[in-house]
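Researcher: Re-running this chain for the archive, since the previous output was lost when a drive failed. Same request as before.
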Amino acid sequence: MRMTTRRLLAPLAATAVAALALAGCSGGGTPGAGGAGGGDHDKLVLGMTADLSAGWDTANQPAYQSWGIQAVYETLAFCLPGGEIKPQAADKITVSDDRRSFTAHLREGDTFSDGTPVDAAAVRASYEDLMKTASDRFGSITFESPDPQTITVAWPDPQPLINLRICQPNLAGVKFFTSSDRKTTPIGSGPYTYDASASTVGSVYELKKRKGYWNAAAYPFAKIELRVLADETASINALKTGQIDGMVTASEVGYTLEEKGQAKILLELGDYAPKFITHVVFARRALINDNPALIERFLKGFFASIAFMKAHKDETSKIAEAVLKEQGAL
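Model: Regenerated structure tokens:
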């Protein structure tokens, strides 16, 4: 049975591939220098198995393989394991005791790629955009702003997941939200800007490091290249031949490549989000009603397989390697 827990991989010669992914998720310190990607040590090349479905629009962005969005846009804060937050565009965030509101103070001098300031008006515009697309979580929020660098966002009811609400909006300049080019022309305040002239939509996306970014030390690469590859097999081949520096893949692929010395696992989703649900089983209501014993047998076998894989990782890797070879993925 195929497990879908994800792993971030890099070739052994380019373990700094996590620079963007880890710093972008946790706001951590400076990773090691040097990327592979065709021998250019100033460039980090990451393989993606899916295109940017929403382009550079801040709305409806998938969390999976979101390196480009994390590079171009900031959020008020990073969400850390355990639910804690670490300020990013804001330098201070205070959550009310009743968890109905938070107040953010924005970094002085932080700007968007169009030169406009990261201020309360931009934060409000970013949240108001989410009010349209995620009304179940943001539909009833209100705003107060005593000065351009301070904003309070409030809900009518307590928000158990208020830290997640703080981390969710990708902040964009006010003009972005009235633009007709939201998918192609981002206006972000992140550590990188999108270089459309060096990119081919649907194939390759080039990002350039911004000069003067407040946390530039956490992002050592001058350029980032995102390559859209046909499928996981193409990604694996590109990783093994040094065409890309890293990718996200399924657990059995990661374990096998690392065991063979062809890659190194840098981040495991299970470690970062230990309570993340990686398996969801669906069944038609008619099948459940008509044949509950069949459903019960399937679930018992399913969980027995998972327990075996966790208890016998080496043997599981060998089985997975054999299956992947048969499928032509290795």
